[in-house]
Amino acid sequence: GHWKLAADVFGTVAEIARAEREPELAMEATTALGGAARRSGDWDRSAEGYAEAAHLADALGDKASGLTVRVGTANNQIARGNLPAAQMILDEVIGESEKSGLDGVQALALHASASVAHLKGRFGDTVTLAHRALEKTTNPQVKDTLMADIAAAFIELGMNDAARDANMIIAMTSRYQWVRWQ
User: Fold this and answer.
1) In a 3-state reduction of DSSP, which class is residue 60?
2) CB within 10 Å: which end of the chain, N or C, has fewer?
3) What is the C-alpha R_g of the chain?
4) 69: nearest Cα among 103, 30, 98
5) Per-residue confidence in pLDDT tens, the chain, 182 aa
6) What string of DSSP letters covers 86-138?
7) Residue environment code for 26-42, b if the CB has 16+ CB neighbours within 10 A, otherwise e
């Protein structure tokens, strides 16, 4: 809940990493800075963090990190309400990550795309995209969040039995208390 503090910490780590000539660490720190700044509502700082991370990823030839940064940029567009711009970025990332065999990045982009679909009221698409992301991710916390998103879309579709079942699975199996509380 202390996103401004997190952004400051990531900014400091990035400065130190740049001074120590550790571009990989600087890239990770600026990516995290972009996310933390977005969550605190500092759009400009978030965009700057993501731009620097994208530059470093390109310089290092790190395709996965570069695409991950683009998902962060799309999340900025989502947060600002520019869903068409976000979807355009996400479609490109999904296609490129699929072509490159980057399942983790593809899962991240599919999850964000499911969020866009939900915000547009396209709940059937939300379920489809979230399920595709669920198949691609290995992170247990992300899997729980995806199940919760699927349950929420089922509720919007009036599929209360399916939503209840999904929520029961989450409540009984999630290792994360905040997910169970949802």
Assistant:
1) helix
2) N
3) 17
4) 30
5) 689 999 999 999 999 998 889 999 999 999 999 999 999 999 899 999 999 999 999 999 999 999 999 999 999 999 999 999 999 999 999 999 999 999 999 999 999 999 999 999 999 999 999 999 999 999 988 999 899 999 999 999 999 999 999 999 888 888 877 777 76
6) HHHHHHHHHHHHHHHT-HHHHHHHHHHHHHHHHHTT-HHHHHHHHHHHHHH--
7) bbbbbbbbbbbbbbbeb
